[in-house]
Amino acid sequence: MEILEYIPINIWDDFYDDGYVPEGEKLETYIYVDNSDIPQEKRKKYLEILIEYINKNLNTNGIKLWMELYESRKRYPNLIGTEHERMFFDRWEIKLEGLTHKRLHEWMKVLENVDIKVDDIAFHIYSES
Q1: pLDDT tens-digit profile of 29-66?
Q2: Cα–Cα dist 39/68, whole Å
Q3: 3, 25, 110, 123: least CB-packed within 10 angstroms?
Q4: What is the Cβ-side half-sphere exposure of residue 88, based on CA atoms within 13 angstroms?
Q5: Which pLDDT band holds residue 1 (cuts at 50, 70, 90)?
Q6: 9 sits in which H/E element
Q7: How far, in Å, CA of 90 to CA of 126, rounded?
Q8: Residues with Cβ < 8 Å from 56, sequence gap 6 or more?
Q9: What distance, in Å, lies between the first and last C-alpha atoms of the chain?
Q10: Where do the domains of the chain lie?
Q11: 88 within 8 A of 72, measured Cβ to Cβ
């Protein structure tokens, strides 16, 4: 693995607009380490550190957060055995339910400037889809 300048962490912002969630649907999104060259166990560790920071320092009222291993093979089993099978991936994610765009904007004011480091490598937290 190459030496990292920073740990890229993306909060996916492509979810329903505030106030426009279709009936029966939920506001759901996720956070992930945006570098698949980083070993899984390190990505998991980084997200565990981040979820702890979020829970201690940000307004999480009304938001459910949990860690989960996303396995695209399980999500799209109909692609097994097809030419698309090569696109399967696994990654650790922080899942968020109930996060609005307004609250994400508030969080980003803090997270874009947070000083979290692991092994002297800083987190670079951003939000894009």
Answers
A1: 999 999 999 999 999 999 999 999 999 999 999 999 99
A2: 16
A3: 3
A4: 15
A5: low
A6: strand 6-11
A7: 21
A8: none
A9: 26
A10: 6-22+44-126
A11: yes
